[in-house]
Design a protein that fits this description.
With 168 residues, the chain is α+β, with helices and mostly antiparallel strands. It is built from 3 helices and 8 strands; from the N terminus they run ααββαββββββ. A 3-stranded antiparallel beta sheet has the order 3-4-5, with no helix packed on it. Strands 6-7-8 form a 3-stranded antiparallel beta sheet, with no helix packed on it. The model has no long low-confidence stretch (mean pLDDT 78).
Length: 168
């Protein structure tokens, strides 16, 4: 035997389901034909960084206009700031261009000897600068250098590099 609650709830349940199915089966074209208002233009989904977003005529909350403008011009968004013209001598040479020739130890302090592109020898101490970095630490058979790169976004990227002596 059915309880009074079941006799009231079941028809309401079926009515809600039927209305949900009817609203889902209506197509937007048929709904647009019934109304006298013109349908808005549908935008194509925008693709930024490989993710598609369907705006449905709303503003994209994850859209960054700066990246879009930079990508249109063909430039990378975050690229290295140009360093300008290098000065003469060791201060104008980048870390990849110099070769470690030796390390000298005198009264507790160490001096490293580098050969540059101009085939001259340069004596550097801890803290001395090259064009793209500086000498961080001088060991017995190695030199730690720090390469600094300034990006257009303002970030300063530091890379530790080690130059070793070729010992037999």
């Amino acid at each position: 035997m059915k309880t009074p609650r079941q006799t009231i709830v079941r028809p309401i349940h079926w009515l809600v389901l039927l209305s949900a199915v009817l609203t889902m089966t209506q197509t937007p074209i048929a709904a647009g034909l019934n109304s006298k208002q013109p349908t808005p233009d549908v935008q194509t989904p925008s693709v930024v960084s490989g993710v598609t977003y369907k705006s449905d005529n709303r503003r994209d909350p994850f859209f960054v206009p700066i990246q879009l403008n930079d990508n249109k011009s063909g430039k990378k968004v975050d690229e290295e700031v140009p360093r300008g013209t290098p000065p003469p001598g060791i201060a104008g040479m980048i870390i990849a261009q110099v070769t470690l020739l030796g390390v000298s130890t005198q009264s507790g302090s160490r001096i490293c000897i580098f050969r540059g592109l101009d085939n001259r020898s340069y004596f550097l101490r801890q803290g001395d600068k090259l064009f793209d970095g500086y000498v961080k630490q001088i060991g017995v058979d190695y030199v730690n250098l720090v390469r600094e790169t300034r990006m257009k976004s303002g970030k300063l990227i530091s890379q530790d590099m080690t130059k070793r002596l070729r010992t037999p």
